[in-house]
Every structure is written in structure tokens, then in C-alpha cells.
Design goal:
The chain has 574 residues and is α/β, with parallel strands linked by helices. It has 25 helices and 18 strands. A hairpin with a 4-residue loop joins β9 and β10. It binds phosphoenolpyruvate (PEP) and magnesium ion.
Amino acid sequence: MTFSLHGIGVSGGYAIGRAQLYSHARLEAPHYLLHPEHVEAEVARFTEAVESVRAELLALQTHIPGGAPPELSAFIEVHALILSDSMLSEVPKRRIREQRCNAEWALAQQTEALIAQFESIEDEYLRERRHDVRQVADKVLKSLMGHPGHAPLKTVDEGDSILVAHDLSPSDMVLFKRHPFAGFITDLGGTTSHTAILARSLGLPSVMALHNARALIQEGDWLIVDGIAGVVVVEPDQAILDEYRLRRNQWLLEQKKLRRIKSSPSTTLDGIDITLMANIDLPLDVPHARAENVAGIGLFRSEFLFLNRDDLPGEDEQFEAYREVARGMAPKPVVIRTLDVGADKSVRWMQQDSINPALGLRAIRLCLAEPQIFLTQVRALLRASHYGKVRILLPMLASLSELDQALALIAAARGSLRVQDIPFDEHIAVGGMIEIPAAALAAEWFARKLDFLSLGTNDLIQYTLAIDRTDDAVAHLYDPLHPAVLGLIDHTLRVGARLGKPVSVCGEMAGDPRLTRLLLGLGLTVFSMHPAHVLAVKQQVMRSHIGELTPLARKLLRAGQPERIQELLARINQ
Ligand code: PEP
Ligand code: MG
């Protein structure tokens, strides 16, 4: 039966494919087919992994350190029992033989099936045991990953699958870079959540906030994802499929046409050069940024190096990553933001028990509470600055004392490198993100101590309007055109102009072509966005005359009523 679901389109384009219901384990596990001759060796590899985890648990049980909590022994016993259950230790072998798939995949599938069974148990105590199942399965998975088997006969291509999830974390999205899905849909999420931001950076058509897609869609259902209108069609009939194939082809054609302006300068009709830069999450995004001919990296969200792992990346590992980006873009500038974890970007080593994490120990607050983490990162950034044009960006500044502390730590890192004779750029620029209303209102004080400012409009809107950017229930209230938001942006831009300090926008507003002309009219000249949006924004820049846009933008700033604002925006975009 055909039916459609409506949500928020967070990433443009159309995808047509079969539903694959989400499982974190599946995303972490590689998936490939085996040569028939290697199937029994794969079963043996799985048995070995189970045995090594059993030995590990036994060793732990017999060497419980004095002073350990008394529950530890019972806890290990539960894990040993789970491991011995044939559902976990035997059924995956059957899956390997039947599907001729690798052991990691067989285990991941079986774990998900088991967890689904646990989730339907009414008794809360028993239901909670699903976490133990996952932990035991993760141990076996880790052991398997450390001992690879025979080379795959064929890697399974997920290019025509659409991932269907209740919710996805930014860490899951990072794993998507390894699993090329055609698109994805989720029940929860807001348009500027980091999950949505990553979806855009992957260029995957996606729809979020569908509420009950996960419950209504079955594995293998045919789906159409319309990331533009925010619609998902389930089990479409032939006529609908034909219609969407047509729309997809037209959309692809438009994208192709846009490529013609790739090497054109981003200059307005009245001759003002506009700097278009790229936001990236990992060094492997550099080629995408370069392909769009950007003027540099305006925001490298360094925290993605810290996700999906149990430990912290050390100084050398970070240095390598930052140098790769700096070298890859040289001589163009690369703005690297210091660690911004917390809120929706949780890391395993950080205990996140805050009731309201978006207002908690996030970003620079966390770094100042854990100065060693910050110092390690700053040393790595400074070392990388020797190999390209690196700039440091501090996230989520609210008070000047935070800025002073961060600058003192940067000075300490510089001093330690000098003592060790390690070269770095002595003139490295340090900037701050303006993404908390207090910082926008006090922009002058921040600008005086910093080399540049960058408006993080995603958080600026979240904190100005008191709207959780990840919560789909309030997603309709998330409004970049709210007069208070525009007032804060305008104020910051004016402060920057007056003090001669460059101000950029690196939030999602910078990549929305419907807002380009308004921002130009407000005086913005540096935009940083996902590489995928650069050409659409450039197209707007090239047809704009700032002299004509300025009075209209100022008029819009003075308008209060949403209808009037929309009317003026339409005039600006005419
Ligand atoms: C922002 O808040 O606008 C921003 C660019 O940072 P992030 O989206 O990573 O919070
Ligand atoms: Mg932010």
C-alpha cells in the first residue's frame, strides 16, 4: 500500500531505494560477501573471537582488584552468561553460513535482532539487559575487527539503500562516510542539529522529524525521499515512481548547470569581492572543498576527530590531521575550531549527565575545565600552522574571562613550543565564535581582544529564541529571520566594520541561498558553508548589487511582523 509521510527536508535532492532499518552495530561493522571456500574459516574466526572474550571475562573475574564495587563480580557473571547463550554465540555462525557474509556483519545483525526482542519485554529490569547484550556483542566485534579474516569476495554496496532510523547521532553520521547510503530519514531531529548538518555535508537527500517512520516502514520497503519538500513516499506505485524519476533528473540537470560558474569569481554586480569558504568535519572532506574552488576553510569542526572512539586523540594524531588540512588547502587559510563537544555531540570519555546539555559544559567551557585537553589541541594546531595558513577559532564564548583564560592557555602552548624549538606561525590569528546572544551584544569587547569573529548562527538562533536545535517538536519555531536574531547579526557586523576586524558567518544561514542577498545587504562579505552549497550561494552573489540591497535589508531589520519580513525578503530576492 502506498502512503506518504511528512517531515522536514534537511538536505536537498531525491533518493529512491529500499529501506534499511537502522542499527548502530551495522554501521560500525563492515559488510562483505565471502568466497564459499572461506566460509568455515570465517565461522572459526567468530568462534575464536567469542573464546577470547570469554577468556578476558574469566581473567577479569579471577583478578578483581581489592576495593572494586561488590557488584562487579555479578556484572561480569551476567556478561559471561550472555556470551554463552546460543543466541549470541551460535546463531551468528548460522548467519555466516546461510548468507556467506563476514562474521562482524552476522554478529551485528543478530545483536540487533536480540535487542529488538529485549525492547519488547515489559519488565523494566529485563528490558534494561539489552545494554549488557550490546556491551558483550561490542566486545566480540572489537575482537573480530582486531583479527581480520580472508579478503572479501565482494563489498556489499548500500548505494541504493535508504537508512530509516528513529534518531541518529552525529557520531552515527560520521560512520556514514564509510557506508554510502542513497539517503536517510529519521523520526526525530531539527534542521540545524549536527546530524542534519552532517547530512548536508554528505550531500544525502534526507528528511527528519517524521515522528513514526521507523515504526511504519518495514525493512526492504521501496522509498522515495524528497529532501526538498520534506516528504517520504512509501511503496510508491509506478506512476509516482516515474514522476519522481523525472523530478530527480531535472534536479540533477540544474546541479550540473550550476557547475558552469565554478571558476567564476564571486563578485557582486557592483564589484565587491565576496569570500566563500567551506565548512568541513574531517580531513577527508578537503577534496570536496577544493572541488568547489573555495577561498579556504572557514570552519573545520575539529570535534569529529574525537567521536566514535573510547580515547582522546593525542597531540601527534591531531597534528597530522590539522597539517593534512593546512597543507591540502595552502596557501588558502584554514580556520580550525577548537573542540566543541557536549550537547548533541557526545563523546564516550565525557560523562554526560547534565539535564540540559546545550546549556552545560560544552565547547570552550569543557576545554577550560579540562585545560590539558585544550593545551594538547592548541599545541597540535600551532605545530600545524607551520605548514599552511592556520587560524584558531574558539567556540561558544560567553564571557570575557573565558576568552582571557583561553588566550592565556594559547600563550602557554606557544611558550612551550618555543622552549622546545618547535616551529609555528608566530602571527597565527585567533578568532572567536559569536553564537551566544551575550557574546553578540558584547561583540565589541571580544573584537578588541581577537583577530576575527565568526557568527555561529545555528547556536545563536538556538540560544536567542530558547529553541533546542535538535528537538523536532520546536523545529517550526526555529527562525533565522526573527528580528532579534537579525539585530544581533547586524550589531556584530557593525562592530567588526568599525574596529576593522573581519566577521564571517559559518552557521547554516551562510549556505542558504534564500538568505544570501539579505546577508549581503547587511554587510556580510565572508560566508562559510558546506561545499555542496557554495555554487548556489555564488549564483546569488553574482546577481546582487549591494548598493541596491542595503536599503532593503535595513528596512527588513526594522520590520517586526513575520509577514512583513517575508514580503521584504521576497523583494530582496527578486
Ligand atoms: C553554529 O553554531 O552556527 C556553528 C557553526 O557551530 P555548530 O553548528 O557546530 O554548533
Ligand atoms: Mg555552534
